[in-house]
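Lab meeting notes turned into a lecture example. A postdoc, R.K., suggested we walk through two folding results consecutively so the class can see how the record format repeats. The first protein's sequence and structure tokens come next.
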Amino acid sequence: MYHRQIKILDFIFVRFLIEMIGSMMSYLLIAIILIYLGLFPVPADLGMLIAGWGLYCLFTLSLCLILAPLSETSEVIEKLLPVTTYIMIPFAGTFNMVSWLSPKLRDGMLWSPFVDAMEMMRYGVFGEQVTPYYDPMVPVWASMICMVVGLTLCRRIRRKLVVE
């Protein structure tokens, strides 16, 4: 941070890109091997898979824009964040399908941008074998709101950040 040209957003974007590319490459490697062995289906709708993955990434980036500055403001928040990410896993839609839930619980789960994006990816992989429930506008709107909040927080924390 000694150089004026490097900003907090640069660190956040680079870290996000590294994690995103690493996740994508590991998924591709495992998927190709499992498809070759006949243990994983060839994606039924590649466009839906990529759209869901893109929305998942967009919301994750917007959430990072909020969490990174917050972790700089408090050591408690910095220590609490890894724990909360593990607690969030059951609510991200990774290990359960929305179609398995009751209609009342389903409506509540569809307010989660992660669940909507995961359902899109699941439909992209399995196609007509699953019954997807999703609204792509939920992750879009949630991402836009989080980005505005996150960019504001990044701007405020920049003024208070002490270079060591």
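The second example is placed directly after the first for contrast:
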Amino acid sequence: MTNSAKTSTTHYEVQKKRRAQFIEEWRNNRRTVVHGVDVEIHETPRRISTGVYLGKDGDSPIRTVDAAVHQVTSGVVSTIHRHSWDAVMLCVGGFAWTEIDGKRISWGPGDSLYLPAWSWHRHGNDGDISARYMSFSSEPLIDVLGFGILEDGGDSPVAELPGHPGFAASMPGNDIYARRIRRLAADQIERFNGRLHTSWDELEFLQSPRGTRTTFLLDRAVGYRTSGLTMAMFEIGPGRAQSMHRHSGEAWLYVVEGQGHSFMGPEPDQGEDYEWGKGDLIVVDHYSWHQHFNDDMEKTARVVRVHILDTLLNTMNALCYPLNLLEEPPDHIRSQQTGDLKTIAWPEVERPSWP
């Protein structure tokens, strides 16, 4: 017997219609600035309150990295769970702790944590005030690939829960199969030994040519092994601006302190200005020209940038080669946009405050 798949139209017409429907839905759900005051926070069965900035569960579909805010009230310990994707945490208010595979890490505002895929984790607050953190995860990308799995362990001790998925550790020989086993095992071992926490007190801000003062929060350059998720914090001096540029993929910019506006458009001289303030999320779209301005003449604006670089964006760069998917203005134009960097008055770096 011969099986055959039949449709009433050609594959070209089916796929063309599917692509058009996807793009229409995508455009209808696009956001440029998500204001923190518009994010509804709800209690969850995990005993943590959560609000979605970007993500399917908040009716704002995204396909790369989602963004959410979480609040842990005083005296609360959440349930423990794990998932097949990884996530990063940006702690923005209060003091609490997170347990990752049995290891407890205390944190405060400005700290960053990494939650590896398949790691059991829960959060607790032993203090007198609520604590708050932002999360950014690769769940949308993993979901697109069909590998999204979440497992809840309730209040079980981590020792009673299943361990990480097993893997073949080694095999002798130089054949293709043995080489693959060793390569994948080495990658898993490296990930297990990656960094989990950056304390605010460890950070060192350095002035960049773009007119900002920056520091890595979570990146492979400082010992992390993620799915490509990376976080960096940058400050814009009082009344100053970051130079214009564009790049492949999206970037999420969470405003930790300050107020300002961003220019975004398809061309350097064609676009719109979008205002933002503390607690807002700025969405930099694919390959759009953008420039960020601090509208406060006395205080710095402090922003955390999140994207998925080493995997997804580098793959996009390779797929689109020889197109240049990172563009910056020439030095003489950049200097006009940022002004004399020596004249920027940088205040003392202080731990972020919330609210």
